[in-house]
Every structure is written in C-alpha cells, then in structure tokens.
Amino acid sequence: MLRITGGTIYDPANGINGEVRDLYIADGKFSSKFDAGRTIDATGMVIMPGGVDVHTHVAGGSINFGRARTPEDHRRTHAFIRSKTRRSGLGGMAPTTFATGYLYAGMGWTTVNEAAVPVLSARHTHEELNDIPIVDKSSLVLLANNEIILDLLEEGEDERAKQIMAWYIWAAKSYGVKAVNPGGVASWKYGNDSKHLTSKISGYDHITPGTIVTKYAKMIDELGIPHPLHLHCNNLGAPGNVETTLETMRHLEGSRAHFAHLQYHAYGGDDWGNMRSEAARLAEYFNAHTNMTTDAGAVLFGDTVTITADGPWQHLLYKLTGRKWGNLDVENETGCGIVPYTYRPSNLVNAVQWAVGLELLLLINDPWRVFLSTDHPNGACFWRYPEIIQLLMCADYRNECMANLPLNIKNKISLPEISREYTLYEIATITSAGPARSLGLKHKGNLGIGKDADLVIYHQDKDIARMFGHPRYVFKGGEIVIEEGDIRETPDGKEYLIQPFYEPDIDEFLRPRFEDRYCMSFENYPVEMERIEHAQIQKCTGDDAEDGDSQ
Amino acid sequence: MGGKVTCTLGEVKNRADFIVYWGGNPAECHPRHFTKYTLMQKSKFLPRGRKDRTVVLVDIRETKSAKAADHFLQVRPGKDFELLTILRALIKDQKVSEEQVAETGLSLEVLKDLIEKMKAAKFGVMFFGMGLSMTRGKHMNAAALLTLAAEMNAFTKFVAMPMRGHGNVTGADVIMRWQTGYPFGISLNRGYPRYNPGEFSTVDVLVRGDTDCAFIIGADPGATMPKPAIDHLAKVPTIVLDPHVTHTSRLSRVHITTAPAGIAAPGTGYRMDEVPMPLKPALQSPYPSDEEVVRRIRETIALRPDWMTNQPQMIEAQI
Ligand SMILES: [Zn+2]
C-alpha cells in the first residue's frame, strides 16, 4: 500500500482541476483506503494520470526497417547502459525496444498505441511489443488496402467483408483498425495513387476511397470495436489537401472516426511554393462535428525519419528530398515506406507544417477530442513531447520561436493571431484522459478509485519543457518506475486486444481466397494467443456492461 | 540516392511479370523458390503463370538456373558494378560508350533490349545473390542494384530483394535490430550497443584474438572462417549449442546438444523477406531447445555480482 499526500491533482476524467488531495494505491489500483505503508510527500507538486499515446510507431517491421536505415543516428544519440535489472539500448529517431519503454516512462507516459501493423507480420510486432518494458500497449491493424476485403466490397458483399475484418483483427491479436490512404496503397501496387475520395483504385471498377472510409467506419461501429476507425486520410502532405480531408469528414458524418496526424492533412494552396495553413477552416468544421477525434501529428524542427504505410507519399518524399528511400510492399495487405527527413525552420513548407500542428491543437476547442502526438517518428520523436507542451502553454515562447520562421510565411499561417495558452488541466486531457477515452481504455487516464495506478508527479517549474521532461516520480501499476530521472523498476507492460465476433464458417470461406493471395499456409497465419505476453482482452460492443480488465 | 525498395514474396507471386536473378543460382541453392514464389505460380494478375512472366538471369557463368530463364546475360567476372551503373545511365537515356559496354562482356543492343523490357513490365523484381554481394565490389554492387531498382520506379513498379542464406539469418538480423539498433557486427563491451562491421564482426574479433570466450548457437564458423579465427576458437573456452556434431563443436570445450529448431523445437523463423513464420515442431526431442539452454545459463549468471552496477545509467552522446 502507498499514499501520496499534498499533491495538486489534475484529473480531467473526474473533473478535478488543480485540487490538493491525497491518493491511495493498493494492488496496482487507486484505492479509497490506506492502512499502512509508504507515504510520498508531493506537497507543491503537480499530479496527472500517466500519459497515453494514441498514435505512435514503436514496434514491428516498419520501424525496424527504419532502425536499419539510420545507423548514423544511433551513433550520435544517447545510449542506455545495461545494469543488472535493465537492458541496454539506444534512443534517437527510431529507438530500440527497451529504450522505447524507458524513454516513454521517463517522461510520464504509461500507455502507447502502435498505430500500423500489417497482419502478415503481426507476429513480429508482438515480439517487439513484448520487448518494450514498463508501458502498456495496444496495436491497430492495417486493413484499408486489404485486397480480399476490397474485393468483397467491390462484389457488394458488405456483410462478409465485415466478418473478414473481425477475423483479421483477431488473427493479428490486435486492438482495432487503422486505415492508411484507403485505396491509394492498393493503387501503389501498380505504381499509382488514389488521392481523392472519388479517385479510381487500380484493379477496381466500383469502389473508391470514399466507399472504403464510409463502409469501414460503419463496419467498425457495428462490430462494437472500442476505438473508432483510425484514419490516415488520402492525399497526405500535399498542398490543397484540406479539400480531401473535409470531404472525408463529410463522408463520415454519423459514424465515429479518429483522424490521425491531422497536421499532414490541413494544407491549402496548389503547389509547394504557395502552400498555406488551412487549420482554421478544418478546426471550424471539426469543432461543429462531435463524432470525430484527432491527434495533432505536430512537427518540430530537427532530424527524423518518416515511416508510413503510405507507399506513394514516401515515393514522392524521396523524389523531393533525394534522400535514401525504403519501401516494403506487403502482399494483399498494405505497404510501407521510409525516408529520413530534416524539418528546417528556414524551409517554408516545414515552417507551415510546424505552425499547422500547433494551430490545430490551439483552434480545436474541445481538449477531449484533440490529442498530443507527433506521429512518432514522422513529425518528431515522441521524447520531444515536452517541447510541444511548452509551445502550447506559453504564447510568449511561441512568439519567440516564430521569429525564426521565414518572412514570407506571413498570411500563410494563423498562429501569430492565436493567444490561447493551455492550462495544466487541458494538458492532462490531451495527453492522457482524452486519448484513453478515445481508445476505450476506461481504467487508463483516470485517477479514480479502482482505476490503474498509472500517474506522474512533476515539480512545479516555470520552464515547462523541463518540468514535463523530468518528472519527480512516475508510477506504473502502483509501482515507482522513475524517480528523479532514474529508472527504478522495469516491469512488463500489458497488451490490450479485442476479439470481435465473426461467424465460425468464415474460415472456410476465406481459405481459398487466402491461398490465392498469400504464400504462407492459412493455418500458420493467425498469431497464436500464447505469443502475447500479459494479454488483456477488452470487450467489444457498446453495452459498457463491464470493464474488460478482468482477465 | 536510392535506398531499399522491396516487397514480401507474395507480391512477387501475385504480380511480378518481370523477374531478374543476379549473381544467384536459385535452381540449386533455393530449390523451392521458383515453384513456391516466382516462376510457376499463377495468380489473379498473372493467370497463365510462367507464360505471363519474363525471367532474366545475370551471372558470370551459365548455371542450371539459366535453363529456367528466358534470357541469360553473361557478365564478365568482377564487372557487375560497371554493368549496373551502365544500366542506371541507360534508363535515364544518358550516353554510354561502346567501349564501356564492351568491358562488361555484353553488347549495347542486348542492354537496350533489356531496359525496354524492364520499362514495359508492370511489376519488376530483381533478386540478387552472393555472386553479386560477395564478389569484387561487395556491398557497392548490392547498393548499385538497389539503386537501379529504386530509380526504375520513375518508369514502373520495381523492387529488389537479396536471396538470403540458410537457417534463420534474417531472424537474427531482425532481432538484433530491434534490441540494439544494428543488424550484426555489434559490440556490447561498454554496456550499450556499438556497431562497426570490420571491427566488431565475429570474424574480425576472432582473428584479432579479442575474446576470451566464445558462445556459438546454430552456426559452424569452424567450417568457414579463416584459420587464425579457428585457431583462436580452439584456444579459448568455446561453447557450442547445436543439434549436430560440427567442425566447431569438435574444437569446442563444451558442446550442448539441442533440439533442432523447427523440427523438434518451436519458435519463429524469419523468411528472407522478413515475414515471420511460426515453427511448429513435428517431432519430440530428448534435448532441450537453444532457448531453454540460454535461459538457464542466463539465470545462473544472474546470481553472480554485476561488474557494471556502478556505471552511469545513461550517456548523452557516444564516442
Ligand atoms: Zn502514423
């Protein structure tokens, strides 16, 4: 048992905004009683629920491809030295698995969602997730370019498509569905793209990206999957793509949807020279439609490596930068591309991107619907989140940073007119309570009785980046894992997954189609349950009867 | 700049209408490769199977694989890099002299025809073997081929893939990468991963005599490494985990017989395209798996004091 006294608590899930309260912990959960045990004096300190990352890329074939492509970065980054209880590792643009756990926990994040898993290599992703210590994990499976499902939609077999979707989620031992450039990656298999909602998808005559997003969102809602369709829209990164994004949002009225890294989808203009922010227009629409959540996908200046399942976009980025290009097409399912990238304040396009990420976070008025992310490692590495928090909380600091942008950025961004400053309560919402709710993880991002005792205690500090970068304590499951920058314990995290319902005869329906497309045996394809360490199966359906945290 | 543009083998099976083998002899070295993944398979996009595919072999001699190919291009030994570079120039319509072409042992006509076919393909793939990556030019050859494949994407869909060796080499590579950031040639001497092939590769460490112990799992360096490396293995305590008696096990101090992976021990094998395959044992073995032996050794070592406990836990930059 453990007691934390005197801390100032920010717990948006329970409406607690900066009140001094005591917290009790027993058996890894918050408790109403305290009999005996250690007391931690948090007087004068700030307490928040542990961070939850709704969109990151930390495990599996693509980030591992990225690690292979960036040895020069491993050399210059900080290294974790092994000890008797801790494995060694490297930080940087694409951190190694053990280091990933230490770095997330080190800034107070305790749950992460790996947002892009091809089913074919899900076994690999889970092996890496098993090697990420401390934090709890979930993963989303890439299905929006799955040719077997697209074929069924093309044939008008929607019900069957939904069943197959459920089958795939369970085969991958995954937590939900990610759609990346719906139809566009399928076209990429022919060297093409599908940029707009009405574009042709190579190999298909009837369906369009619009069909896919609409039907997928409905199917996911009907299957009762806790997290809505997690969507990386078509036409990522291109000037003028705000039209595609708004059109996508209109298609999704009446369904739940999570828009990933909205920053990359909020541009006006029609070429790189006149590209401008359309964050204000997008935020206005978004504010008026409460069926949606989003994560910012904010950009920070510096080196990184871009990794997406969006093959055609990565090819374009390679052509623009001339830097080394990695591409991996996955049979029947998806693609993956990798290009190292440097965001420079002197580069007009990069400067606009930097501003757009912040504008979205500041102009979307409901912190329960917009979450902190950099689409790690695409916009910046996750361990730079404290810098973004500082930009959100200090308008003066923002203005200072804006002084470094090119002069001709005037009229291309709206950031200079925005004076909003985030409060600690709002920061706790966008980093923890909000993403936990969007993921449907009811026992996360919440300091209430019976919830998981994941929390972070910060020193009050005028230097916001320092405050959030160096927590006084981090607790995971009631255990102190970080204390003043030292890693104390490295417990294994849990992994969340779901088992949506599908008819048992779907196996035999799928088998011939599968054997036609893949080159491994049908029996070998699904990930065995034994391979998931500390698995927690969460409930589907919206009936909320019970927390799934019972296994 | 190029890079690595690749795909999983199922994509080749489903879509590749143009297949190049460069410096490899799959007919003899990867006997199931043609039938399972490439030449013989029919698919939605290539309903006539072999008839819908064009196959080219580039090698220094006419191997058995040449029979399976539609076109055989005999490159002069040691001229792979030159040939690849000429092809890179030709696809972009840059000038190449007759003499430069002649050096490769091929004619401009043949190369122009090849490029025409490559550009006309819907989905091209280039497989390359040790005949490319282990001869004069080594990784520069592989890089030139990967760049050619990447640049071909300006015209049509093109990918490239190495034909990896036997066993689970790819699996080792994949796991080392997620745990240390590097695929091989890693030193953990300072308590964190450092990478320098040529310095930390097994053969270099052994030849220099830098180790005072060797622990070898599922490999037989005693059969393939240079004599000074083998001599060093014989000199220091060498521990071998292997289902069989090998050259290395004969010179080792300890040989622990283990169950053969995939036959009598479960696990994961990574295919050469990095797709993880579950290994489902068909037989029972009286011997423990490699994994169990390593785990038990580790547990025993963990009981001893740690020499690194007093080191700092993190360093900001490496040297
Ligand atoms: Zn992403």
Structural notes for this entry:
- The complex is a heterodimer of chains A (551) and B (319).
- Chain A is 32% helix and 22% strand.
- By secondary structure, chain A is an alpha/beta fold.
- Chain A has two domains: 1-43 and 446-488, Urease, subunit C, domain 1 (Roll), CATH 2.30.40; 51-65 and 79-85 and 93-100 and 113-445, TIM Barrel (Alpha-Beta Barrel).
- In chain A, strands 8, 11, 12, 13, 14, 15, 18, 22, 27 and 28 form a ten-stranded parallel beta sheet that branches.
- In chain A, a hairpin with a 7-residue loop joins strand 16 (267-268) and strand 17 (276-277).
- In chain A, helix 10 (279-288) packs parallel to helix 12 (348-363).
- Chain A is globular, with a radius of gyration of 22 Å.
- The model of chain A is unreliable at 545-551 (pLDDT under 50).
- With 319 residues, chain B is α/β, with parallel strands linked by helices.
- Chain B has two domains: 9-162, Dimethylsulfoxide Reductase, domain 2, CATH 3.40.228; 169-303, Rossmann fold, CATH 3.40.50.740.
- Chain B has 15 helices and 14 strands.
- Chain B has helices at 9-15, 26-29, 33-36, 65-68, 80-91, 98-103, 108-120, 130-133, 139-152, 169-180, 202-208, 221-224, 227-235, 247-251, 290-302, and strands at residues 3-7, 18-22, 54-59, 71-74, 123-128, 157-162, 186-187, 194-195, 214-217, 238-242, 254-257, 267-270, 276-279, 314-315.
- In chain B, the strands form four sheets. In chain B, strands 4-3-2-5-6 form a five-stranded parallel beta sheet. A three-stranded parallel beta sheet of chain B has the order 9-10-11. In chain B, strands 7-8 form a two-stranded antiparallel ribbon.
- In chain B, helix 5 (80-91) packs parallel to helix 9 (139-152).
- Chain B is globular, with a radius of gyration of 23 Å.
- Chains A and B meet through helix 1, helix 2, strand 9, strand 10 and helix 4 of A and strand 1, helix 1, helix 10, strand 13 and strand 14 of B.
- Residues 55, 57, 115-116, 260-261, 308, 375, 378 of chain A line the site of zinc ion.
